[in-house]
Amino acid sequence: MSAVNPEAGRRSRTPSADVERELVSAAEAVLVRDGPGGVTVRAVAAEAGIAPMGVYNRLGGKEGLVDALLIMGFDRLRASVEAGREPDMLDRLRACGLRYREFALANRHFYAIMFEDAIPRGDFSAEVGEHAIAAFGALVQKVEAAATAGRIEAPDPTEVAQQVWSALHGAVALELKGLVLTPDPEATYRATVDTILRGLMA
C-alpha cells in the first residue's frame, strides 16, 4: 500500500503578492467601468472574488486601493512621457507634449483621480508622491535633453518643465470638461504645443 500524501487534496494558498495584484487589477476594472465613484471596497472585493475584509488585510482599505491606482496611473504617465525616440530633441519634446494629451484622453478616469481629486482624499502618501515626482522628472529630462542639444533655452529645466506642464495640463483639462470652443480640439492642442516650443527655442 502506498503512503498517504498529507498534502494531497489540500488547497494551496494564494501568495499575498498575487492577491494584492488581483485586487489592484480589480480596482482598475471597477474604475474604468464605473468611474471614480464606483471604486469602493465592496465593489473591488466583488470584482476580485474575495471577501471585503481581504481588501483591508492586504491594502488597508479604500485608501490603499486608491494609492495603488494612483501609482499605476503615474507610472503609466511616466512611461508615456518617456516613450519617444525621435532623433531631434525638439521633436522629442513636442511628441512628449502630444502624448500627454493622448494619455489623458485614453485614461480619463485615471487622470481624474490623479489631478482632479475625483476620489476625495488628503495629500498623496509618500509612496504615491515618489511616483508622481518620477513622472514629472521624465518631462524634466526631455526639457534638459532639448536644452543640451541647443534646441531650446532652459537654464533651469525644472522651472521650464513646470511651465510646460502647467500649460499642457490646462489645455487638457479644458478639453476633458468640453470647454474647447474651437472646431478641432486636437489641432488647437497641437498649435498650443508649437506655441510653447517657439517661446523656448534658442
Q: On the 0-100 scale, what is the average pLDDT?
A: 91
Shape: elongated
β-strand amount: under 5%
* Multimeric status of the protein: single chain
The CATH superfamily of the largest domain appears as: Tetracycline Repressor, domain 2
Q: In DSSP terms, counting alpha (H) and pi (I) runs of 4 or more, how many helices?
A: 9
What would you say the CATH architecture of the largest domain is? Orthogonal Bundle
CATH-derived topology of the largest domain = Tetracycline Repressor, domain 2
Unreliable segments of 5+ consecutive residues: 1-13
User: How many angstroms separate the termini?
Assistant: 86 Å
Task: Briefly note the structural class of the backbone.
Answer: mainly alpha
List the helices and strands and how they pair.
Blueprint: H1 16-34, H2 41-48, H3 52-59, H4 62-82, H5 89-106, H6 108-115, H7 126-148, H8 157-176, H9 185-200
In short:
The protein has 202 residues and is mainly α. 70% of the residues lie in helices and 0% in strands. Helix 2 crosses helix 3 (52-59) and helix 5 (89-106) runs antiparallel to helix 9.
Q: What does the model show?
A:
- This protein folds into 2 domains: 14-60, Arc Repressor Mutant, subunit A, CATH 1.10.10; 70-200, Orthogonal Bundle (Tetracycline Repressor, domain 2), CATH 1.10.357.
- Helices cover 70% and strands 0% of the residues.
- It has 9 helices and no strands.
- α4 runs antiparallel to α5 and α5 runs antiparallel to α7 (126-148).
- The protein starts with 15 loop residues before the first helix and ends with a helix.
- The model is unreliable at 1-13 (pLDDT under 50).
